[in-house]
TrEMBL record, chain A:
Protein name: Carrier domain-containing protein
Organism domain of life: Bacteria
Organism lineage string: Bacteria, Pseudomonadati, Pseudomonadota, Gammaproteobacteria, Alteromonadales
UniProtKB/TrEMBL annotation, chain B:
Keywords, in A-Z order: Oxidoreductase
EC number(s) per entry: 1.1.1.100
Uppermost EC category: oxidoreductase
This protein's encoding gene: fabG
Molecular function in Gene Ontology: 3-oxoacyl-[acyl-carrier-protein] reductase (NADPH) activity
SUPFAM superfamilies found in the cross-reference section: NAD(P)-binding Rossmann-fold domains
Name of the protein this chain belongs to: 3-oxoacyl-[acyl-carrier protein] reductase
Amino acid sequence: MTHDEIQALILSAIELTNQSREDLEQVPVSPDTALFGAQGHLDSMGLVALLIDIEDMLQDQDIHISLSDERAMSAANSPFKNVASLVAHISHLLERE
Amino acid sequence: MQHILVTGASRGLGLSIVQHLLAKGNVVIGCARSKGELKHENYHHFEADVANEEQVQELFIKIRKTFKYIDVLINNAGVARMNAFALTPFKNMRETIDVNYAGTFMCSQKAISLLRKSANPRIINMSTVAVPMNLQGEAAYAASKSAVESLTRIIAKELSSFNITCNAIGPSPIATDLIRGVSDDKIARLVEQQSIQKMAQPEDVLNLVDFFIQPQSKMITGQVIYLGGIS
């Protein structure tokens, strides 16, 4: 998958997540969106829900990777900090496959 | 009709659970290290070792492709080897933790996305009265199940936003393969410590399975229920 394809998939997953969130809790569907941690729009369970949706979408394309990461809750270098870091994380995992 | 995944499905209590759930009209997906010998139109068997991360991953990929979702995960797969703490080989302790705790951990984690698609998603784990009774000779087994109990309570909190409940059943002694090597005297002494001084039957566990699965149990999570009046 290319960088743009991964980014598009993440943005689709955010749209899906927004369907089950209140109006005031909508996550901006943008490549610049902060996801988790400082200024992040998601709490830990919101993040889990988003990551499960992304894993599901990847599995629909027969791509079976786990997005779990020991740095998940790290304030400094979580791969889930924002859309850009998540794109890089998934891209890295796909390269290792 | 629900889709129910039972690990450790080929014998003992797991097989009883499978047969019970099939009789109630459910689709049952069983997994075990051995081949499944049960033949039933609604029974689907997969060979997998729950202590093996790759095999668990493969198992859930197959289940997702075939069934799309599951309503209930019953983490029944388990091993028990009684031995004095001082004489327990490290390898046996490791295997006990890997199957009983790590297996439950991995299957529960992989099941989240399939359970989210259910209206009444449930995880049921298996513990034992050996945990509250701190039974001698069960250092590895009881500790592994103690970890399962902690996992049960934490999953209950973390997955409540997905409406997934997570509970555990703690059977008192039942005549299954798991206690085959335990002497009659020892079993009798254990049963004497229970409020209800009788051996349990598989039906007593099935009753709790039914209780946790039913839609009315949606507010019951993070609980460990022991048989026989142990607390």
